[in-house]
Input
Amino acid sequence: MAERHDKHTGDSSGSLAAASESLRDKAKTLFQYHMRRLTLPEFVMAAILIITGVLMRTVHIVFREMFGNEFRTLDYLEGKIGAIDVFSGVMPLYYWIIDAWASCVGTSSDLLLRLPSVIFGLATLLCIFIFAQRFLRGIAFISALLVFCLNPILIAASNQATPFALLGLIATLSCYFTVIALNKGGLRNWIGMAVTAVLGFLTHPIFMFLTLGQMIFVAFRPARPPRAMWITSIITGAIILSAMIFFAILGQEHFKIIESNIPALDDVTYSLVAVICGDFDRYWNTEFIRAFLYMAVFAMLIISFYYYWQRQVEDNALPDGVIWIDDTADIVQNWRRLSLATFMRLHWITFAVPVFGIFIIASCIKGIDLTPEQFIICLPPFAILFASGVDYAPGKYTKYILTCIFAATMIVYGINTVADNGYGVEKLSHKLNDLSFDSTKDKLIVAYYRDNIKPSFDRYGINKVQFIPLDKNAEQREINTIVDQAVGNVERAFVFYVDDFTKKHVGGETSNMSFVRVWFNYHQNLFPTAKSWRLSRPEKAELVVYTHENSTDENTTTEQTK
Output
């Protein structure tokens, strides 16, 4: 159901005014502005989704070893780097919080370091529940909860010592306070909107695009916005503009010429779809799955846009001061200054502006790679768009089928996220102990393409490692020389392969090649036996123990274990 009186001029016709007043009274009896009572099906489904979301954020907090950007948090806590690096998307708010927390609990426990992110993730579930309950009902209410409760990227962020769980929380609060302030007004709501904008920018610089989208909505509204909104917009706009100019001057050496393929459009599309459905490129990716997910997400966006367009046409056709009520819609509110059409327009703008802004930033600044986590600020508006798309789908069963498709997709990738153990370095340390690794007789070699894997070995106490970074431009002869020197006369060579295959063009054909594996294949006469263990499926990490022909080790056999 929706009411519409975004236009503030009165109607001269007494009959229209009387009809409008009658409809207004009817709407007030149907809906209250504050928290509404859930129906039994809504309550049951909401309880299932929220309980599932809580469990997926808490059951495996320390299953994944410290990974990726978490080492930046450790570097900050150890005083190696500062709290601000805007060109790497690093702002101080989260690091101030984690610094205060680590001063109480230390840095040795992965669980304690991740606990603030777990709290932020659970708080986000509470916020989206309140947000959805106020503005949605029925299948739309459940659909919006689904986007957050089962979202694999938010689940992963809740189990990492990084700023992204906090970013998701503040983005949700910002969208909530923006709608409430625009529709209801009130100093408390304006303050909430302003505070979340500042906190969001202090968490991650890309948050300014969400704020910018909110300002653009105000600028293009047909009705005059409240005075407080104008003041807030001017102040916020001045802050954003000043920050952009300051960092542009500060980082003039960081900028590069914009090229049409930097980043590739596929990078933007992948990150946008992945932040909704899950990191399919990391866990379970085929051309069919990629095409299916792309089609599903963009089909929902098209349906949602058509829904908004229909509501806007109807809104424009109404006389001034007349309220239109549709008792079949699941996007509801006792609108005061907004209408259903302007509510949808707000979320379309706050969804599109961050997507375009992130694309521009990634195109202009060196060293920034697009990742799904950067698009977390798009999730709150997408939840509303997704809910409206499901609501507008023809037929009850079509709505259920669409919801179930996205739910199943998120569950599959959510389970993969929860079961992800990172690089496998922590498992490697246990395996070395089990196999009685002796650094005086044996050699540990790490063949990898990822530059940020080294801190993992320091974190989990693995020393005396021979790292062999595999550059895409490397040649087999170079790697042969390095491996010759590394192996020497060892009894056992423990080789830890991490995504070590690369595509090479040989004789007009393209094949996947691992330079280090090729070396050991050439030297099977020296290392005739081998045994392997898969330590991380997402990272394609595998430990292979090659035993020298003169070794007297009785524990190594020719059996291969996957």
Notes: The chain has a mean pLDDT of 80. The chain has two domains: 37-418, 425-547. The longest helix spans residues 287-317.
